[in-house]
């Protein structure tokens, strides 16, 4: 059985305890065993990262560029192999998983170029005989905490810029996806990263996450609202830099003039594919009354045709829920929706397949209001609710009536409404005739309100979190 160890100061080390890595498509399949680090080992990893920081930052940008390019090249070369591991471990389909590995490779390749074009400024002072230079320093030792739903793409878009801009890293992945994280750490280690520059610590948030927060210079987190709020409070108490991405309750607005096939396709993809386990999933379908009935009928028909099965099986369109706890949460929200008075157009049910797994068919609620819990709280499963509205103005108001603000989409053929929605939707991402989920790797990512805290991730904007601006005065 594969053993996933921790990488601390360039050495693979066993932890204080172990946990099974279970395949959600076949719960009899133990993929490997993860060696969970102790709090003391996390402290060792932080110390190793701090010791390695000066030399790593003093190295040339070409050295860092070459290393990131080597990581990208290996990920590209092994994307099918690593994609199969990811699908087996997390439950998304083989095609989705291979695509995610490719995305991670593109992220490392992107930052291998960014590192050699870090820009500064030289300005004239208002005083004679003085020059002003504006440069960027690395923030220091960066703690990285990532979720299970994108177990290689999200780590990539945090690790790559951290290393590119001269920081050292202590990486804590989700305990549900240790295999993919360990494989990524092996690739980074094999590329020649110096000892201590990149460290992997496996384990739970209660032990590893808590210890990580006590010693790093910055923390970047993607996960639940509850945990994100706790991390932001802890980080601000220590006066360290913090970046948190914490989910969404994303609306997809469908207007009367929308192309019906396009709108249904957007809802199907955004709400239910990848088992609805995306922070950008469109769980609120805000539909004007002129198209409402046709939209609901067409979407229900498409839902009945989805092939749900094992992640690696040919023809599977939607895999299992990631684990028993998430499955129980999904079922609980289905019950909550029914008890609140929502009509169940398509009922999510536990499914039996050739292997025992966490298989759940989609749920589509109708006759819901925006004040119901199923429209206020993030479910993170294949569950969506339709909210009927009178017109565009009501649709926009409902779309914005949420404590979240990550992604918002609209399906319309009207340039007037499309432009107005782009300008007035209270979200970090807006989509026109596209699913609310689905992102490029080279552009900024993040939300508003309760969805995000701190600077944007990805693209050229990532530099704002991973560096500190320095202003230098020089007498000439």
TrEMBL record:
The keyword Methyltransferase does not apply. InterPro entries: Ald_DH/histidinol_DH, Ald_DH_C, Ald_DH_CS_CYS, Ald_DH_CS_GLU, Ald_DH_N, Aldehyde_DH_dom. Keywords: Oxidoreductase. CDD domains: ALDH_KGSADH-YcbD. It comes from the Bacteria. Residues 12-471 form the Aldehyde dehydrogenase domain. The keyword Transferase does not apply. It holds the Pfam family Aldedh. The active site is at residue 245. Belongs to the aldehyde dehydrogenase family. This is Aldehyde dehydrogenase family protein.
């Amino acid at each position: 059985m594969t053993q996933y160890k921790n990488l601390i100061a360039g050495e693979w080390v066993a932890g204080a305890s172990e946990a099974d890595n279970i395949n959600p498509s076949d719960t009899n399949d133990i993929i490997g065993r993860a060696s969970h680090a102790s709090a003391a080992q996390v402290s060792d990893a932080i110390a190793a990262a701090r010791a390695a920081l000066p030399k790593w930052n003093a190295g040339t940008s070409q050295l860092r560029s070459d290393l990131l390019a080597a990581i990208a090249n290996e990920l590209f070369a092994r994307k099918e192999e690593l994609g199969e591991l990811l699908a087996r471990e997390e439950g998304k389909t083989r095609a989705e998983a291979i695509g995610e590995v490719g995305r991670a490779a593109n992220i490392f390749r992107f930052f291998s170029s960014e590192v050699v074009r870090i820009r500064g400024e030289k300005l004239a002072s208002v005083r004679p005989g003085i020059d002003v230079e504006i440069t960027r320093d690395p923030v220091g030792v960066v703690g990285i905490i990532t979720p299970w739903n994108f177990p290689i793409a999200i780590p990539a878009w945090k690790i790559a810029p951290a290393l590119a801009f001269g920081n050292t890293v202590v990486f804590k992945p989700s305990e549900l996806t240790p295999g993919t994280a360990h494989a990524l750490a092996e690739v980074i280690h094999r590329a020649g990263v110096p000892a201590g520059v990149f460290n992997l610590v496996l384990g739970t948030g209660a032990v590893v996450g808590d210890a990580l927060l006590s010693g790093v210079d910055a923390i970047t987190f993607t996960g639940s609202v509850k945990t994100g709020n706790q991390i932001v409070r802890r980080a601000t108490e220590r006066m360290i830099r913090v970046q948190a991405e914490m989910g969404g309750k994303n609306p997809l607005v469908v207007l009367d003039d929308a192309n019906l096939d396009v709108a249904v396709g957007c809802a199907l993809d955004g709400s239910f594919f990848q088992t609805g386990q995306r922070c950008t999933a469109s769980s609120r379908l805000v539909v004007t009354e002129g198209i409402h009935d046709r939209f609901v009928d067409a979407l229900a028909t498409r839902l009945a045709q989805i092939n749900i099965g094992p992640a690696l099986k040919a023809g599977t369109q939607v895999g299992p829920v990631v684990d028993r706890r998430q499955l129980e949460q999904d079922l609980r929200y289905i019950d909550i929706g029914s008890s609140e008075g929502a009509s169940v157009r398509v009922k999510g049910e536990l499914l039996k397949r050739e292997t025992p797994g966490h298989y759940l068919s989609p749920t589509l609620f109708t006759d819901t209001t925006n004040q119901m819990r199923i429209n206020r709280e993030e479910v993170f499963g294949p569950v969506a609710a339709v909210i009927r509205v009178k017109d565009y103005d009501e649709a926009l108001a409902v779309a914005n009536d949420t404590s979240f603000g990550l992604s918002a989409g609209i399906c319309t053929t009207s340039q007037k409404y499309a432009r107005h929605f782009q300008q007035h939707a209270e979200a970090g991402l807006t989509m026109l005739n596209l699913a609310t989920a689905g992102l490029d790797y080279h552009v900024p990512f993040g939300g508003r309100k309760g969805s995000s805290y701190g600077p944007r991730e990805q693209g050229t904007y990532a530099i704002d979190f991973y560096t500190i601006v320095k202003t230098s005065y020089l007498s000439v």
